[in-house]
Amino acid sequence: MTRKQRRLTLIGFAGAILAIALGLVLYAMNDTIVFFNSPADIQAKNVPPGTRIRLGGLVKEGSIQRGDDQQITFEVMDAQSEIRVHYQGLLPDLFREGQGVVAEGVLESATVFRADSVLAKHDENYMPREVADTLKKQGHWQGEANAAPKTQ
Amino acid sequence: MVIWIILLLMTAAAVMAVLWPLSRHRALTAEQLDPDTQFYREQIAEIERDRERGVLLASEAEAAKVEAGRRLLRSTGMTADTFAALGEPALRRRRAASALALSVIPIIALALYGAYGSPQLLTHPPKEQAEGQRGSLDLMTAVSQIEAHLAQNPQDGRGWEVVAPVYIRMGRIEDAVKAYEAAVRYLGPSPDRLANYGEVMVLAKDGLVSSEAQRVFEQAVALDSTSPKARYYLAVAAEQDGQFDKAKRAYGELLAASPEGAPWANVVRQRLEGLGAEQSVAGAQENAPQLGADDIARMVSGLAERLETRGGSPDEWARLIRSYAVLGQRDKAKAAVERARQVLAQDDDGVRTIDAMAREMKLIDAGP
Amino acid sequence: MFVEAGHFALALALGLSLIQFVVPLWGARANDPVLMSVGRATSLAVFVCIAFSFLALTVAYVTSDFSVVNVVANSHSAKPLIYKISGVWGNHEGSMLLWVLILALFGAVVALARNSIPLRLQANTLAMQGAITIAFLLFILLTSNPFTRSVPAPAEGQDLNPLLQDPGLAIHPPLLYIGYVGFSVSFAFAIAALIDGRIDAVWARIVRPWTLGAWAFLTLGIAMGSYWAYYELGWGGWWFWDPVENASLMPWLAGTALLHSTVVMEKRDALKVWTILLAILTFSLSLLGTFLVRSGVLTSVHSFAVDPERGTFILGILILIIGGSLALFAWRAPLLKQGGLFAPVSREGALVVNNLFLATACATVLIGTLYPLALEVLTGEKISVGAPFFNFTFLPLIVPLLLLLPLGQTLAWKRGNFLGTAQRLYAVFGVSLIATMALFAFEYGGPVAAPLGIGLGVYLVLGSLNEIVTRSWSRGTPLSVAWRRAANLPRSTWGAVLAHAGVGLTVIGIAATAWGVEGLATIRSGERVKAGDYEARLERVMPRIEANYREDVAVFTIFRQGQELGSLESMKRLYVTRGMPTTEAGIMTVGLGQVYVSLGEVAADGSVGVRLYYKPLVLLIWIGALVMALGGGVSLMDRRLRIGAPARAKMAPSAAVPAE
């Protein structure tokens, strides 16, 4: 084989791998990416039931109900609307009423959500970024002064 | 003074680290002048040593030597005339490099340290702080002992009463509330105990006198109508409810009943002044609705925003700090103190004003 | 006083690194060995200054000097000593100081390695190290100064984030940073070669130990971080495809590719331009990792800093260093001479394939990590790209690479014989296939992934060991002779075999997670929760008080098929200073698997939510990584790397063993 042929083999092979990778990425982009929504978004966008989403908002005060074997139901709300969430599992340490939360799972109907994972803020100053942004947009954000980093 | 000498010595050592290799040119031999050649020569010698020690097989060593030899030849051929460490241009280069080191290192170090360092702290080493630390360590062991004791004897009211103020000092307000609650439960109500209990509840709510706390204070006043702390907080409660007249009256009575030089008198007087100021604002606007807590908060946040974006005089900063402190938002007040100190760092008088205000509002000590 | 001296030392280091950048570069242009030698002295001085500065901060932490803002924000006088020390780098400012400390340490080591690096290359390399040091020292001094004082000093600190109060934190960041920063040396060498316009096998031989060392430490750092997340976060997961994890995985993938392409360059003088580009990209990805974690662009446990000013500064550094080096590359790379030829089917060809797969896999991870950011900036739409994306794109690229690995390792240099090579692996194919079949038969109807993955792992381990066997033993060789031959194989060969076998072990551990079982229940004392063959009985819940936290301790007895195995403790902690609760999972190791108990809320009536996991062979994931790093270490000890003994095919077979 000449140098040129070798080079062409190499380029062809590299091109093939890149094409496969590109195909995989594009396909995965359509299929595996999960959108973040607040309860208001779900109403506004008419998200069809059965869609996998990340739901973010505040845990409504007084809405937490515990059943047998860690069956938990609570409501996630924002300024405009709220949605009931079912979840079975251990809640994160910082899951509290009135605090920010992000739940990932499947939308069952316009007002019911089945979560398979629930994340809460990691420490006192941390609010899931998406939740903070959404709440800010809706003018519900007050935690700024307290959430500001303490060091200069 | 000692520290400046140390910093000077450090600078000198740093500069010397650069000057030293520059001054070694006299020791250079012709061979060292061509460092690449020297590099391969040394490599060949090392391979020889390794072979003797048996680390390398003879065939490997031979191949390695051949390889290094080939590179040695190539590098001598290529660089024989290019390395230039002697002569006039080299000397000039060396002088320039020395000058660069002599100027750049001290200038950069001093400029940056001067801008960001705190050399003034060096002359006054914070001695009392070291003692404070030792104290807090002792405190920690004491607290954990008391806690262990209380875990076993939860009905020891006296223990709870002892540990509660310590919790406050450590910033564990929630625990202090629980401790006072337990103390009241097991030792029975007394005016002081109730007043302290109410005060922690207020602290826990960032200065807001909740209806719960108000009931506790009323209970304390019922037991001892002179309890200044309880009366003070009841007045604050009235103020927060927007009943300014009632609050004013209550503050006035408290002042009148206070002995000369009572430690709380100043705070009460400020409260009273603050009330007066707000009322005059309210009075200036005819038929203006009475100022609610929300309006005050909005005014304060307006001031804060203006100071943040456009800056302001030390007095304005002091006013902001006072407003936060009066509203009971101690965190924000502290943040404002920090911010003001930063902004006014160039202005010594301004910083002093801020510090005075911070001391006055007791923002510096964590204790109540 | 010590603190102020440390602060001053940091400022001095900046001045010195400016000299380190300018003077040696000038010397190399003017061919003046005296100016070039300034690089050595200054990089040692920079290291001494930064080390002193770091020491000063450490002393402030250990003595709980609360006049330092950084100490106040991240320490507490009641904290155990080890967390006082590890707290130094458990926060943004301190971790950046650790970063430059390691950078300066590498600079000093390069300076001390005077007998193994030609002066001109060394001078240019140290100058580049100096440039990186300048950027990061400026960043620290101007935006993240750990020596800012607070007057008057508060009586007590705010404590370190409890999630970080763990032995894992003491080790994880330093290991990771040694890895990240180690690649700066390869980068500096690459830039030095571009400046000089000269690059050859000697260059590759000099650079390889640095890349190897950085790679081994990065491997350890990632494994350590993964194990830490596994036991500390209480979800029992060991890899979350979290952006911060991806940030460390990308330089690892690129670094692995670099390691292999350097071998080609060293042996065959080929792939020069590509190797240089990889060295630049690897360090760029390390910088990107630092940027992603430090700027707070991605919010996660690791983001200690949420501050746009810092973000902009790091972005500036990033653009300057990455953009500058790529521009230099585009300008100078065409000047480099092309090297040796090789057939597509050859060891070189296999290593090219390795590079292609690794680089592509790295690119998909990069896309998955940055796409959400880009989309949010462009459209405002928020998405999360999680495990499904990465599993779907990453695995199809990595599995073929792993399947080809033993083949590539067995191929000859220059021109290989594919069928002949495959023949040498017949036994390996056979055993792996039988193992997979046996597992299928044994588990009937379980997850398909587990037997296939374990089969792949077995194939990798055996395929690597096969290398040793075929080189030291053939039919009729006495065992003692074979043993001696194996022992005499070059260390670098052993290193490669170990590293590849480590990959196999990790693959087995990952595949076996498909067999994991879990159970969830709310139980009281005396009741049990069940997961597969395993059961945990809650004995009691008791309170316990430590210096800086209180905890509820749940004691469990673990049973397998009704037989008692022992007991373990899971904790629910409350760190009082920050009022922050954490969960500490209880873990019991059974063989290579682990029983993992995580607590939920402890209700007022004494019932506890409990999640029980049994994870078979899970330890292999990290043991594999340790073996990989060990392989790197063994290879690093190969004497021939340092003196550069060439191994040519024309030499006697016993010595011709190509160093891997």
From TrEMBL, chain A:
One of its GO terms (molecular function) is metal ion binding. It is found in: Cell inner membrane; Cell membrane. Residues 1-7 are cytoplasmic. Its main location: membrane. Coiled coil: none annotated. One of its GO terms (biological process) is protein-heme linkage. It holds the Pfam family CcmE. Keywords: Cell membrane, Cytochrome c-type biogenesis, Heme, Iron, Membrane, Metal-binding, Signal-anchor, Transmembrane, Transmembrane helix. Belongs to the CcmE/CycJ family. This is Cytochrome c-type biogenesis protein CcmE. It comes from Microvirga makkahensis. The gene is ccmE.
TrEMBL record, chain B:
Residues 148-261 form the Cytochrome c-type biogenesis protein H TPR domain. SMART domains: TPR (SM00028). InterPro entries: C-type_cytochrome_biogenesis, Cyt_c_biogenesis_CcmI, TPR-like_helical_dom_sf, TPR_CcmH_CycH, TPR_rpt. Keywords: Cytochrome c-type biogenesis, Membrane, Repeat, TPR repeat, Transmembrane, Transmembrane helix. GO terms for cellular component: cell envelope; plasma membrane. One of its GO terms (biological process) is cytochrome complex assembly. Its main location: other. Pfam families: TPR_CcmH_CycH (PF23914). It is found in: Cell envelope. The chain crosses the membrane at residues 6-23, 96-116. It comes from the Bacteria. This is C-type cytochrome biogenesis protein CcmI. It comes from Microvirga makkahensis.
TrEMBL record, chain C:
One of its GO terms (cellular component) is plasma membrane. GO terms for molecular function: heme binding; heme transmembrane transporter activity; lyase activity. InterPro entries: CcmF_C, Cyt_c_assembly, Cyt_c_biogenesis, Cyt_c_biogenesis_CcmF. GO terms for biological process: cytochrome complex assembly. Residues 315-639 form the Cytochrome c-type biogenesis protein CcmF C-terminal domain. Residues 89-295 form the Cytochrome c assembly protein domain. It is found in: Cell inner membrane. The chain crosses the membrane at residues 6-26, 38-62, 96-113, 125-142, 175-195, 207-229, 249-266, 273-293, 313-331, 352-374, 394-413, 425-442, 448-465, 494-517, 617-637. Signal peptide: none annotated. It holds the Pfam family CcmF_C. Keywords: Cell inner membrane, Cell membrane, Cytochrome c-type biogenesis, Lyase, Membrane, Transmembrane, Transmembrane helix. It is a multi-pass membrane protein. Belongs to the CcmF/CycK/Ccl1/NrfE/CcsA family. Required for the biogenesis of c-type cytochromes. Possible subunit of a heme lyase. This is Heme lyase CcmF/NrfE family subunit.
